Fold this sequence. Notes:
- By secondary structure, the protein is an alpha+beta fold.
- The chain is 43% helix and 11% strand.
Amino acid sequence: MALKARALYSFQSENKEEISIQENEELVIFSENSLDGWLQGQNSRGETGLFPASYVEILRSRSGSNYTDYSSSPAGSPGHDFYTAPTNPSISYQGSFEDDDDDDWDDWDDACTVVEEPRSAPGTNGHPSPSLQYPAAYDHHQHTGYRPKPALERQDSMSSSKRGSVVGRNLNRFSCFVRSGVEAFILGDVPLMSKIAEAYCIEMGSRGPQWKPNPHPFICSVEDPTKQTKFKGIKSYISYKLTPSNINSPVYRRYKHFDWLYNRLLHKFTVISVPHLPEKQATGRFEEDFIEKRKRRLILWMDHMTSHPVLSQYEGFQHFLCCRDEKQWKLGKRRAEKDEMVGASFLLTIQIPTEHQDLQDVEDRVDAFKAFSKKMDDSVLQLTNVASELVRKHVGGFRKEFQKLGNAFQAISHSFHMDPPYSLDALNNAISHTGKTYETVGEMFAEQPKNDLFLMLDTLSLYQGLLSNFPDIIHLQKGAFAKVKESQRMSDEGRMDQEEADGIRKRCRVVGFALQAEMNHFHERRVADFKKMMQSYLKQQIMFYQRVSQQLEKTLRMYDNL
Length: 562
C-alpha cells in the first residue's frame, strides 16, 4: 500500500534508477520496507525511482503509530540484514529415480519448474514491484530539533579495505547481470578454485570465436513413449526410451527427469542458450496427440543438446543419458546438485584464445546480433501464427469446404436418378464418385499437418525458446562492457591501479569470447535446422498434392468411357 512521506533532506539523483527529492517535499512511498537502505517511491513531480531511506520520514495518521524515521539508519550501513537477491539460487527437488514413496515429480509439478526472475512493474525502472516483501525496516520515534544530514553510502560505490578503489556495483540488484553472478566475476569477487576438474575451450575459427568441438561426438534417439504405472496403478506416467550412440544401450526416462536436467543446465551454464523443454500440460497428458507432440519436440531438444560442444560434455547430461543403476543414479544426481562450478564459477572453467580482440569491435558485433535476434524472433512468431492458423484451416475449414463440395456433387448425382428414362448410370456413378473423391480430399487436408506443418511448428517453437534466452545473455555482456569502461576511467583518474583495471578487462574478455562462441554455434545450428525444416516441408507438400492429383486423375478417367 502506498504511504505518504516527507523529505527530511534534499537528495540529487546520480543515475537513472534514482530520483531527486527536495527538503520538505511530499513523497509517495510504495513500500516502507527498504532495500539496502533505499526506498522506492514517487516525488511531487511524478518521477518514480529510488532515494535514501535515511532522508525521509513516513507520515502516519493520528490514530495510528508515529511516522517511521529512517534518518538514524544510514543507507546501506553495515549491521542490518537487508535483503539481497541470491546470486545462484539452488533448487531442491523431491524424489529420485522411480522408487520414492513421496515422489511427486508429476509432469505438472510446480516444485520442478524453473525459478523465474522477478518481473518489473511498469514504472519501476527495473526494480521489483512494491508487492515484493523484504525484511521489515526499523521504526524510530519522532525526534525534534536539528538533525545532521546522515552520511550516504551508495550501493554502487561500495568500498573495500583490501583494495584502494572498487568499480561501482549495479544499483539494481535484481538484474540478471547481478543475480547470475557475472558482475561478481567481472569485479574479481568469485574465488578461484584450487582445482578445477572441467575445462571448456574456445578457439578462433573462420568466423571468430567458437566452442572447441566435443572430441567424442554422439547423437541420442528418443522413442517408444510408453504409459506405465506405480503404486498399484494409482500413479501413471510416460517413459521415453533414450539410446545414446556412444554406448548403444538404452535408458528410460520420464519427463520429470528431463525437467531436473533442464534446471541443472540453467543453474550451471550462465552464458549459454539452453534449449527450452516442451511445455507442460495440466490435463490430457496421456492423450495420443499430446504424447506424440512431446516426443517430436524432445527429439529436437535432444538433437540440440548433443550437438552443443559444451552441453553435450556436461557430466550431469552424461549421467542422465547413461546411468542405469538406481543407486548410482541417486549418487550422480546429488553430485550434480552439489556442483560448485555453476553460475559465475562456470566462467572459471572457460579457456579463451590469446588473440587480441578490440572491445569496441566485439560490442559492435554483439549489437548486430542483438538486432538480428530481435528481428528473427519477430519473424519466427509471425510464421508460427500463420502456420498455426493454416493448421486450423486444414483440420476445420478446408475439410468442411471439401465435404460440402462432395455433398453437392452427390446431390446432383442423386437428382439424375429421379427420371429413369433419361438417366445415364455411368455418368451418375462418375459424378457420385467425384463427390466421394472430394470428401476424401477433405480428409487428406485434415491429416496433412501431421506430415509438414506440425514439424515446422516444432522447429519454430524450439527457436522461440533459444531466441528468448539471448536478451539476458547479451545483458551480461553489456554489463561487463560497462564495468571495463568504468574501471579504465577510474584508472585514468588515478583512483584505481592499472593492474586491477586490466584484470577486469581480462575477465570481460572471457564473457565476450563465450558470447561470441554461443552466437556462432547458434548460427551454425540455425542454418542446418531451417534448411532441414524447409526441405521437409516442401517435400511433404509435393507428395501431398501428388496424392491429391492421383485421386482427381483416377476420378477423371471415369468420364472417358461415357
